[in-house]
Specification:
alpha/beta, Adenine-n6-DNA-methyltransferase TaqI, Chain A, domain 2, 2 domains, five-stranded mixed β-sheet, 31% helix, globular, disordered N terminus
Length: 572
């Protein structure tokens, strides 16, 4: 096998952060709210009252903001990610509280609850929006004493009852049922990976008992917060939640969408523009959901806005019944945008499978030096492409040996022999595997789930590829790229493999011109079609899952493609 002269730096950062992205609320999510309009990139925002535009004499808020900074500094970014601890900027909290209060009768007493109190930014906002006589009670739940102690010190003298407790337990106590008329909060976004199996089962059971709703095991902690809060809300109460926008379009967000359109009256949804976030890592964008606890009448409507919270780019009103019938709740899904055309979908021509997940790219994807050092037999090596970011051309050419004409490609270690056979027949390869075991590779999550830890998933090289994710810009350029692959190279899970149906394969007949022509048609799919089908994350990051890609319409298919579709319809 010919060995490629590769560039090590191309793969160093390409253990590609896996597929599961860490979501967090960060102040840059809300930069457009108080950043100068003429600046293209908002500065990083700090939790300091100087930027809030509030009276400097408001000593309590000033103390809270400063104490928040100090407390945050004592925790690592990893710890705060794991616990979902990211404070809400005061302007956002203030606007949310003001909006929620307007949904209550003007003379209604306020029994306030903050399920994820933190240092008490929502209570601080409440004190500026409501009169002391209007607030009949105020309670905050905070599981972390680091923050509950701050809130207790600053806000207890003002009437806030601070409880160092788990809100999910608080919400199940019968003495708390129906006690509260107003909830404003930013619940912790603890990803499902960080929830213990027994904790998930217990929370799912609680939601089933209270509401008769089944929560997917993929749901984060915030989903349980919203659903369990139903019990503590009084009839007619108003709740406003700062949530990850993922629930608007992912499958495991359906339980929340169903709850909001059938159990309560959904008043408004604001979706922050993910392109406005300035950061280097991938974060899910945010949304604000406000509702009233009563059954939605058949004629109710929801106000929907998008972009800047104070000055939205888009606004519209959607009847609740229409929302209930939609699988995704984003602005593009509220418009036809030509998506209802008669153009065929990709599922008419392809099956789609994600690229392989090795469980340890740094170990299983080898450079030439490692191959030579351990004398790894070529029979166990398969060429593998680097990340889409390093592919400059939409056509991947190949050598006569099937190797890709792409700088920086490497080789996948793909040995299906059982360990005892490797040890007996290939001692140098066995030495490499032993080193992997010593490093704990075999005990990693994905590797430990395999039949044998070093086995790879079975995939055939695909003639067409799509990037699994990508960033868009303000010009709405398509974030997903398609490639025609003439090589025998495999791909990791940052790609999607597109395998032609037998009918399309017969039409293609390995004709290079036709393959390239179809590749051009794929890359000419309008950006809106991709954005409509996929999902948006912070900073303009977009991702599309295999099932979502199959629903994309091929709006400019070559004429000969109709032949494949016609044959397929005849067979059906």
């Amino acid at each position: 096998m010919a060995i490629n002269s590769d560039k090590p730096h191309l793969w160093k950062a390409d253990v590609e952060k896996s597929i599961d992205w860490i979501w967090e609320h960060r102040t840059p999510d809300f930069a457009p709210i108080f950043a100068p309009k003429d600046k293209k990139k908002a500065p990083a925002l700090k939790e300091a009252t100087a930027i809030y535009g509030v009276d400097r004499n408001q000593e309590q808020e000033n103390n809270r903001a400063e104490a928040q900074l100090v407390a945050d500094a004592t925790k690592s970014a990893e710890e705060r990610n794991r616990l979902g601890q990211f404070s809400t900027p005061f302007p956002v909290a203030s606007r949310m509280v003001a909006h929620a209060l307007k949904a209550l009768p003007s003379d209604a007493p306020v029994a306030f609850l903050e399920p994820a109190l933190g240092s008490g930014v929502f209570y601080s906002a409440l004190l500026r929006q409501a009169t002391a006589s209007q607030i009949t009670s105020a309670t905050g739940c905070e599981i972390d004493p680091c923050y509950s102690d701050i809130a207790k010190t600053i806000w207890s003298p003002s009437g806030l009852r601070v409880l160092n407790c788990d809100f999910t337990a608080f919400a199940t106590e019968s003495s708390n049922y129906g006690r509260f008329s107003l909830i404003c909060t930013n619940p912790p976004y603890v990803r499902h990976h960080h929830l213990q199996a027994e904790q998930k089962v217990a929370l799912q059971s609680l939601v089933m008992q209270r509401l008769g709703l089944h929560v997917s095991g993929l749901s984060g902690l915030y989903v349980y917060f919203v659903l369990l809060a139903d019990a503590v809300l009084a009839d007619g109460a108003v709740a406003s939640w700062l949530l990850p926008a993922e629930f608007l379009y992912v499958n495991y967000g359906r339980v929340l969408r169903d709850y909001l359109t059938s159990r309560v009256t959904l008043l408004s949804i604001h979706h922050f523009n993910p392109d406005d976030v300035q950061f280097d890592d991938a974060l899910v964008s945010s949304c604000i959901v406000t509702y009233r606890k009563n059954r939605s009448p058949g004629t109710s409507s929801c106000a929907i806005s998008y972009g800047d919270y104070l000055d939205p780019q888009e606004q519209r009103t959607m009847p609740t019944l229409e929302l209930r019938g939609l699988n995704k709740w984003t602005m593009s899904h509220f418009e036809n945008n030509g998506m209802s055309s008669d153009a065929p979908r990709l599922k008419d021509f392809f099956s789609v499978r994600r690229g392989i997940a090795t469980g340890a790219n740094a170990f299983f994807i080898l450079d030439t030096d490692t191959i030579a050092q351990y004398d790894i037999p070529s029979v166990f090596l398969k060429p593998i492409l680097p990340s889409p970011r390093y592919l400059r051309e939409p056509v991947i050419r190949a050598t006569v040996e099937g190797l890709p004409h792409v700088p920086g490609f490497r080789y996948l270690l793909d040995c299906r022999l059982p360990p005892n056979e490797v040890q007996r027949q290939y001692p140098s390869l066995w030495r490499y595997l032993e080193e992997g075991m010593a490093k704990g590779i075999a005990d990693g999550y994905l590797c430990s789930q395999k039949e044998v830890w070093h086995y790879q998933e079975r995939r055939k090289p695909a003639p067409f590829l799509a990037s699994y994710m990508g960033r868009s810009n303000g010009n709405r350029e398509c974030p997903i790229r398609f490639f025609v692959n003439f090589s025998d190279a495999m791909v990791t899970n940052v790609f999607l493999n597109l395998y032609p149906t037998p009918e399309l394969a017969a039409c293609l007949d390995n004709d290079k011109e036709r393959l390239i022509e179809l590749g051009e048609a794929l890359n000419n799919v309008p950006a809106e079609c991709i954005l409509h089908a996929g999902r948006a994350y912070g900073g303009g990051l977009h991702k599309i899952e295999p099932k979502e890609l199959l629903e994309v319409r091929l709006v400019s298919a070559p004429a000969w493609v109709d032949e494949a579709l016609t044959k397929q319809l005849v067979l059906i």
